[in-house]
Design goal:
- This protein is of the alpha+beta class.
- The chain has 3 domains: 30-238, Glutaredoxin; 246-326; 364-505, Tetratricopeptide repeat domain (Serine Threonine Protein Phosphatase 5, Tetratricopeptide repeat, Alpha Horseshoe), CATH 1.25.40.
- Helix content is 45%, strand content 18%.
- It has helices at 2-17, 157-167, 192-197, 225-233, 241-245, 254-266, 270-280, 287-296, 300-309, 315-322, 339-350, 355-372, 377-380, 384-393, 397-410, 416-427, 431-444, 449-463, 467-480, 488-505; strands at 30-36, 39-45, 50-52, 57-64, 67-74, 81-83, 87-99, 105-116, 121-125, 146-152, 179-185, 205-210, 215-220.
- Strands 3, 4, 5, 7 and 8 form a 5-stranded antiparallel β-sheet that branches. A 4-stranded antiparallel β-sheet has the order 6-2-1-9, with no helix packed on it. A 4-stranded mixed β-sheet has the order 11-10-12-13.
- β4 and β5 form a beta hairpin.
- The longest helix has 18 residues, at 355-372.
- It is globular and about 65 Å long.
């Protein structure tokens, strides 16, 4: 009975979902700062079909431990060079880009920061732009006292969804008004200092901070379009997390205390969250308090209550850890779930189900996720790995490979999809086919990614009997990557590489999945 209802719901959602067409997204410009021998050289990268205006005014400002440097000129900044000492640098540029055909121009504001000297390259991104058609001289919204750090990675599906639906979507630029958005690639060393400072471990993480660096709030994961827009809209009036967590934090009661407890628990400020749970008492009963308690002191009672009363959300995964049998009730949340969330719930429901019902759930998940696709590579990027996984679970590996090949063709400079292709082939024991994509993923990798791709390539080579070559790959990545001191994930990856190497050269030759 459950499977019949499940499949009939998916069929209806597929019909309605197929008619949705998302607008095409432009490729934003970027500026690369190449730092060599104390000199920073500016390289302007215009979007396809555009060029930096040779006449409009442009500006460049960099601040660091030794002071501030500024360049104001007419024309492109490309090739400009400044003498900059090593250290943490924050940079901002205003540049006009013009369409090659129509000649119409718009002004972009690009920002970035990093540790010059540790890295030789700093990339400035343009994620908050002036309205289309704005004349040179206009400027994107900035300042407002709130800086929004965006910790993400190219291989992170929810990061890609967040970018496509909000952070890099011109239609959502208003949601970022008054915020200074700073994108940070968590695989690059220049992000490590800020990751440590704000104790960031999950991705994506949006961390909003005041001008003095005090944390206002954070959003870990991507709960979806509407919850994220609501969170962004509330930043300007939110009581800072740091203030709530302080020993002399304000006393709240009822629902206000429950809301504070949830915010603190989701920001991993558990001790402070517990204080507000106590403040809330029974008068704070409701979704916020239940979720806070679920994260602090998990109970089957709170988990079951949320399944009955709350809308779909990230709390589901914490609830299933408390009581795995609740996966049988995931169908109750379908009505409030997006097609992508529903696909995830169907996949979760398949775990532990009978083979027949699991097959029905996997088919439903595939159909539901297909309904979420728009046909736009940028919009669909965050769904492609899960889509491929669902094809594999449905016994259709070759179709999964085709999905990944198409996605890789759309993003040929990233390792995301070619790495996933190698992973699926290694897991299926198709080592001959896995070697080439594993080598290509390793060639494209940077930073922490080098550990993951080295392990995948070593596993493929080992499967082909090329153990000595596999060991050389692992030795090379251990030699090239500096031993991490603070970054938890980097230390974990390095340990896995060392364990995999020991297994290949010792008696136990287990293969770890990166």
């Amino acid at each position: 009975m459950v499977s019949l209802w499940l499949l009939s719901w998916v069929s209806a959602s597929t019909v309605s979902g197929s008619a949705v067409e998302a607008p095409k997204l432009p490729v934003p410009p970027a500026i690369v700062v190449d730092w060599r021998g104390g000199y920073a050289t500016i390289q302007v990268e215009a979007p396809p079909g555009q060029h930096a205006s040779p006449d409009a005014p442009s500006s460049w400002r960099m601040t660091g431990p030794a002071g501030e440097w500024r360049v104001d000129m007419n024309g492109s900044l490309d090739g400009a060079s400044l003498r900059i000492p090593r250290g943490h640098i924050a940079a901002e540029a205003s540049v006009a880009f013009c369409d090659d055909v129509s000649g119409s121009c718009r002004m972009w504001t690009l920002r970035g920061e990093g540790l010059l000297g540790v890295t030789h390259e700093l990339v400035l991104h343009a994620r908050v732009a002036a309205a289309p058609g704005a004349a040179p001289g206009g400027e994107a919204p900035s300042g407002g006292g709130i800086r929004l750090y965006d910790f993400g990675a190219v291989w992170c599906p929810p990061c890609n969804l967040l970018n496509a639906e909000i952070l890099e979507n011109p239609a959502r630029a208003g949601a970022l008004a008054g915020l200074e958005l700073v994108p940070l690639d968590v695989d690059r060393p220049e992000s490590f200092e800020l990751k440590d400072r704000y104790d960031v471990g999950g991705y994506p993480s949006l961390v909003a901070v005041a001008a003095d660096g005090t944390e206002i709030d954070r959003l870990v994961g991507y709960p979806g379009l509407e919850p994220t827009l609501s969170w962004l809209a509330g930043l300007s009036r939110a009581v800072p997390i740091a203030q709530l967590a302080a020993a002399d934090s304000p006393a709240l009661t009822g629902r206000e205390a429950a809301a504070a407890a949830r915010r603190l628990a989701e920001a991993d400020q558990l001790e402070a969250a517990a204080r507000y749970v106590t403040m809330a008492g029974t008068k704070g009963e409701g979704e916020d308090l239940r979720i806070a308690r679920l994260l602090l002191t998990p109970s089957a009672e709170d988990a079951a209550w949320l399944f009955e009363h709350a809308a779909a959300g990230d709390w589901v995964y914490a609830a299933l850890k408390v009581d795995p049998n609740l996966r049988l009730r995931l169908g109750e949340l379908i009505g409030s779930a997006t097609p992508a969330q529903a696909a995830d719930y169907f996949a979760l429901a398949a775990e532990g189900a009978s083979p027949e019902l699991a097959a029905a759930y996997h088919a439903a998940a595939l159909s539901s996720l297909s309904a979420a696709l728009t046909g736009d590579p940028k919009q669909d990027k965050g769904h492609q790995i899960f889509l491929a996984e669902l094809y594999v679970q449905n016994g259709r590996l070759d179709e999964a490979i085709r999905v990944l090949d198409r996605a890789d063709a759309a993003f040929p400079d990233e390792l995301t999809f070619v790495y996933a292709k190698a992973r699926f082939l290694v897991e299926q024991g198709r080592f001959t086919e896995a070697e080439a994509p594993a080598r290509e993923a390793h060639r494209r990798a940077w930073g922490d990614q080098r550990y993951r791709t080295a392990m995948m390539l070593a596993n493929a080579l080992k499967g082909l009997g090329k153990v000595r070559e596999a060991v050389r790959v692992l030795d090379a990545v251990l030699a090239e990557q500096p031993a991490p001191t603070e970054d938890v994930r980097a230390r974990s990856y390095r340990k896995k590489v060392e364990e995999l190497r020991a297994g290949m050269t010792g008696s136990g030759e287990q293969v770890h999945k990166p």
